[in-house]
Every structure is written in structure tokens, then in C-alpha cells.
Write a structure and sequence with these properties.
The protein is built from 14 helices and five strands. Strands 1-5-3-4-2 form a five-stranded mixed β-sheet.
């Protein structure tokens, strides 16, 4: 039946278009027997795209099976298809077509991350934790495959290989992984595009306590620029106070406590000491006189 004039055309969701529909090797699994992947880094939101996916499933069913791995309890861990599972539940489905695969923990991590990185839109926080999970899994696999290699060598290979696979530079991949050191409040600002990525990256080098101060500053004074945050890097973090941090972000350098110093000009010294005396000799004489003065006053 043709579309009515003005009727909104429902397009198949990107989740349904990631791969060619498969039927061989699939089985229908109870939607309540599937649980999310542990520490799944990708958000499942009830947004407009989810509404479109729900409508698509109501109209066409699940075109692409989800991928799960079985556990010892008779249930399944989701590998690929978290959004489809959520949409299927909302659409009222009791079962969902699934491909059941036995996988090691690391293989499951790699498959989960790779399937989700194909999404059209990925938040910086999602990419950060996904890269970290995949990087650590690749390092573990590399260490097992080459037990004679050094840890540093394995790390370098994992860095390079991950960068190659995701199509980014190794430095950029490392920046994303570093972003996982941000407190959730600051990371949310990065996701919301209120806190620039490069500024958020700079904030990862501070303690969580200072990051909380930075978040309070962002909330009360606005987002600081990269160079303002970078200017804090040379300060002793153990001695920095919240007030000093605010002053520095506002362009006011806290007063440095310097040791007291007394300066005598040569002209003034020559009023009391012979001109022929060298400066080291004058210094020794002054110290001797001060020590004598100290002894006399201590005795008194």
C-alpha cells in the first residue's frame, strides 16, 4: 500500500543496516534471558532514533539477529544488539533472533566494541571507554601470543594496531583513553560539547578533588579556556587551594612566598668596614659579629 500524502516515511534504523540479514545459525531467545555486556560503554537512550527503531521493529520485525554468548546459568550476555534488544522489549516482543557464540572474555570485548563503533554518532565518553576496553583486551591477547616480548613492546603494538583499526592517530587514541580519567560531571560536559575535548583532556591530569573544583568553576563562572587550565599544570598540586585555583583561572597569579632578604650596598658597608676587605671577608666578619650578638643576648 502506498504512503499517504504527508505521511512520515519510516526509514530502517542504522542498527538494522549494519550487515546483511542472517538466518542460518540463529535461534529465538527470550528477551528476558539476555543481560547487558558488563561495563558496556555505549548508552542506550530513548531518543528519536530509538522511537524510529521501535516503529521499524513493529513493522518489519528484527531484520538483523543480535549476537550473544551463553553463560553457565542458562542466560546470555549481549555482545552486539543492545539497542535492538531495548527496542524489541518496547515493541512488545517476547523473543528475539540471536546468534549464540562461545567467546573468551577478550574476544567478546573486541566483538562488542567493533560492532558498536559502526554507529553513526558516538559520544566522546563512549569512544573513550570503548577504546580503553579494546586496548586492554588487545594488550592481554598480545602478551599471551608472545610471552617472550616485553610489556612495553606489547603496549606499543596494541597502540599502533588499535589506531590503525579505528582510523585515528595513536596520539588521538591515547587522548581518548586518557579522557576516562575525568570525573563523570566533567565528562558529561564534554559529551554535551560545552567543554572542548582538548580542555577536558588537560583536566585529566589533575586529582579528582581538583577536578571537582574545576567542575564547580565551570558551573559558576563558565567554561575556562585551554590555556587557563594548562597554566595550572606547573603548580604544586599538593599545595594548591581552591581559592588559588580560582584566582589563577581568573588571571591572578597567587603571591609567591619568598624568603626574606636583607641587602647591603657596597657603599653602605664601606662606612663601617675597610675598603680593602674583599666581599667574602666582609661576609665572614658580619656573620662573626652576628653570632657574638646572638650569644650575648641569649646569655642575658
Amino acid at each position: 500500500m502506498g504512503n499517504r500524502p504527508g505521511q512520515k516515511i519510516k526509514l530502517t534504523s542504522i542498527d538494522e543496516l549494519l550487515c546483511v540479514p542472517q538466518t542460518a545459525g540463529t535461534t529465538d531467545v527470550d528477551v528476558n534471558a539476555i543481560y547487558p555486556f558488563e561495563n558496556h560503554p555505549f548508552k542506550v537512550l530513548d531518543d528519536e532514533k530509538m522511537e524510529e527503531l521501535v516503529d521499524s521493529i513493529k513493522l518489519n520485525g528484527i531484520l538483523t539477529p543480535v549476537i550473544v554468548r551463553p553463560d553457565d546459568e542458562g542466560t546470555y550476555e549481549m555482545i552486539s544488539g543492545h539497542r535492538r534488544l531495548h527496542a524489541a522489549k518496547r515493541a512488545g516482543l517476547q523473543k528475539i533472533p540471536a546468534i549464540v557464540k562461545e567467546m573468551t572474555n577478550d574476544d567478546a570485548i573486541l566483538a562488542m566494541v567493533d560492532s558498536n563503533l559502526q554507529r553513526e554518532e558516538i559520544l566522546p565518553s563512549e569512544k573513550a571507554f570503548a577504546y580503553k576496553m579494546k586496548y586492554e583486551a588487545m594488550r592481554r591477547q598480545g602478551a599471551r601470543k608472545d610471552l617472550t616480548s616485553s610489556q612495553v613492546g606489547t603496549k606499543l603494538r596494541a597502540d599502533n594496531e588499535l589506531a590503525r583499526q579505528v582510523g585515528e592517530s595513536r596520539n588521538q587514541v591515547q587522548r581518548y583513553i586518557r579522557l576516562t580519567e575525568l570525573i563523570p560531571e566533567l565528562l558529561n560536559l564534554v559529551d554535551e560539547k560545552r567543554l572542548p575535548f582538548v580542555t577536558g583532556y588537560e583536566m585529566t591530569f589533575f586529582t579528582r578533588e581538583i577536578q571537582k573544583w574545576l567542575y564547580e568553576y565551570c558551573r559558576e563562572n563558565g567554561i575556562p579556556k585551554w590555556d587557563q587550565v594548562n597554566g595550572l599544570r606547573g603548580v604544586d598540586m599538593a599545595k594548591l587551594t581552591q581559592e588559588e585555583m580560582i584566582q589563577m583561572l581568573n588571571g591572578i597569579r597567587p603571591a609567591q612566598t619568598l624568603p626574606s632578604k636583607i641587602t647591603f650596598t657596597e657603599r653602605k658597608l664601606n662606612q663601617y668596614l675597610p675598603k680593602y676587605m674583599s666581599m667574602p671577608e666582609k661576609e665572614r666578619l658580619i656573620i662573626t659579629l652576628l653570632e657574638k650578638w646572638k650569644e650575648e643576648h641569649e646569655e642575658g
